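Z., the sequence and structure:
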Amino acid sequence: MDFLGIKLDGRVVLAPMAGVTDSPFRILARRWGAAMVYTELASSEAMIRDSARTRKLMEFLPEERPVGIQIFGANPEAMAVAAAEAESLNPDLLDINFGCPAKKVVRGGSGAAVLQDLDLLRRIVARVTGRVGLPVTVKIRSGWDSESIVAVEAARIAEGEGARAVTVHARTRAMGFGGSADWDMIRRVRESVGIPVIGNGDVREPADAAGMLDKTGCDLVMIGRAALGRPWLLGAAQHYIDSGETKDEPSNEERVRVCLEHYDLALRLNGERRAVLEMRKHIGWYLKGMPGASRVKQAVFHETDPGRVRKMLGEYRDGLNEKKGFIN
């Protein structure tokens, strides 16, 4: 399908997640069927200070396309400068984060905090769209809390200032990631603007993606936390949208194989030290609920040599297949 002039091979996209959606994870998500991926959110203030680490967050490989770079901040001019820096990397689109609930983000007036000041939101979107030629999109939540539901108004403002699409995470900032997402809010935004709407929240299984499209009329579905340790969920969701059929979940052995594929990508792209540390949480997600997993996770979490980590995971996979090894 065509989305803002970008050719997508489906309607299911991977959410930007801080500390998670780095290049190895994005590559894996694309291999498993994500129609589009996003970088981790990057601080505009760090970018204008020429932070090498922040620039690294925005870098991507050709095999990740289509890819969006997401930035956040509370200063319109700094956001415009950061947007120009992001554009120089030639992503497919630029996304502005007005939805992050993290304390360290909202303390600085960024992320979901901007939903408390819609004039600031207006000025940020106007400065960014006026600075870059890329399609600019925004991601919002329903509002700051239940007393300040502003998603429809925020989406209309963003559209009026040149945003080309809006993602709605149908929870308030006060909810964090708890409670139930209000899909009706996504529908209300879809009915209130003329730009595409991406729905986000409580898409945990393939049928949920089809249900969100049907109940809200949104154009694309965004999956975040449910894809942790389950990158195949993205393709499975698209398959359900296309066919109404549910794919079988990968076997435990296959899950470990994908984990090892992810590990190898991380070693190649992030270097040994960073890969060993950052893959620990991913290994935990991949092995969650599997027989005997607690023992191998405990061993892996205390290991610093990548070769030994791979060996442990390989032995665990073989043990799953042969009903021995780590299996109790």
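The chain has two domains: 2-243, 252-322. Residues 13 and 222 are 5 Å apart (CA to CA).

Let me know what you think.
H.
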